[in-house]
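Progress report, Aim 2. The chain analyzed during this reporting quarter is listed below.
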Amino acid sequence: MKAFPGQSDELKRRELFELRLRQKGIALLKTPTLEARKEKADSYPLSFSQQRLWFLDQLEPGSSVYNVPVAVRLYGSLNVRNLELSIYEVVRRHESLRTTFSVKDGQPVQVIGSEAKLCLPLIDTSTLATEPCEAQVQRLALQEGRRAFNLSSGPLMRVLLLRLGPDEHVLLLTMHHIISDHWSRSILVREVTTLYNALETGRPSPLAPLPLQYADYALWQRRWLQGEVLAQQLDYW
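Predicted structure tokens for the chain:
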């Protein structure tokens, strides 16, 4: 899922930064409040960072340079179905993980899918006796990380589960940077873990509904950084 300004640690760093600027007599631009969309639409504009990544993909389609891979080693008894349900719920929670990118009126737009198109393939490495187990894991992880995404058709997140033994697995998650980033990797793993533990103990999800989605941030950024405000920023940089 795509991280965006509004998370607590980010706010603390921003407040400290603004305080230091004020102490130096540097005026700050007043920014509008970031709010959730009041109405849903068929598509939304890209944030500036998404637009940059979309443009780079147009220049070099099929590149895996901006893939964001995650590998998590799992020990102990594993309920594969509950793991799949946990990942599915995270994709449902975060719109960015259900987003693809198309062109409308000559401009790139993000389209948020209504459903999570996801399955969890399982490879039992014990059936691949041609190489040592760890070598298989390394090879499959590299293979997954290098597989390109199609930004227009998606999905832009893949999962693959490797079974090394009865009580040892490796979960491979790969996302395109246009829908995720390195900050988000820890959030993804933490939420999947939380949901899996809840399912295993028969409890409902303890995760609160998300007040904001990445499309809210993209709209906020586009509405703010335009006209005179955008011109001032461009002049400064």
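Strands lie at 44-45, 67-75, 99-104, 107-112, 122-124, 157-165, 168-176. The first helix runs from residue 8 to 23. These observations will guide the mutagenesis work planned for the next reporting period.
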